[in-house]
UniProtKB/TrEMBL annotation:
SMART domains: TPR (SM00028). Residues 32-41 have a biased composition (Polar residues). The lineage of its organism: Eukaryota, Viridiplantae, Streptophyta, Embryophyta, Tracheophyta. It comes from the Eukaryota. It comes from Rehmannia glutinosa. Signal peptide: none annotated. Residues 43-52 have a biased composition (Basic and acidic residues). It holds the Pfam family TPR_16. This is Tetratricopeptide repeat protein 33. InterPro entries: TPR-containing (IPR052658), TPR-like_helical_dom_sf (IPR011990), TPR_rpt (IPR019734).
Amino acid sequence: MKMTWKKNVSDSKGKTKKRPISFNPNLPFEDLNSSFDTNTKAEPLKEDELRGNDVVGNKKTSLPNEEDDNSKNLAQDFEAQGNKLAEDGKYREALGKWETAITLMPERAVLHEQKAQVLLELGDAWNALKAATRATDLEPRWAEAWITLGRAQLNFGEPDSAIESFDKALAIKPDSEAKDDRQAALHLVKRRKQLHSTGLSSAENRFLVGDQG
């Protein structure tokens, strides 16, 4: 199977959370034991607070969006390392890098799709099928994810399901390589029917991609 590393799936951006009111030490109702002076005005917010940062001991605390950006950057580093390893044929090492990236960015469909590809190269059709399914769940309009899922289904011995996946890929991208893959799946279905007509039990009606005769 030809290995291709897709990187055209858009990333979602985290939203900045509002700071709780209790973080502002200048509100008049913070100290319930102090006397209330109607002539006392609250001190204006400092420049750092206006920017959305709290100052504690002259150190700025990290905001949620900053943490999200750090996780995203780290995940992209692991993804790039995995891409390089996969291109060099080091599939197990690439898988490890992508697994780490997935823990940081579990909603990134391209990581699941690439994981499925290397699992197919390693002969693990079942886990490849699960990873590809996750990719299609996250990006149902991504043709390449459906192609990878179809190939995983073929390798797992489910040509009927594979044909459905290839059809979905072709509906999204008519000129994709899913055409050839669909023909391979049709061939397996035809051969299964021929064997079934000769008395082969239904429990034996599973084929690998290589069993095309």
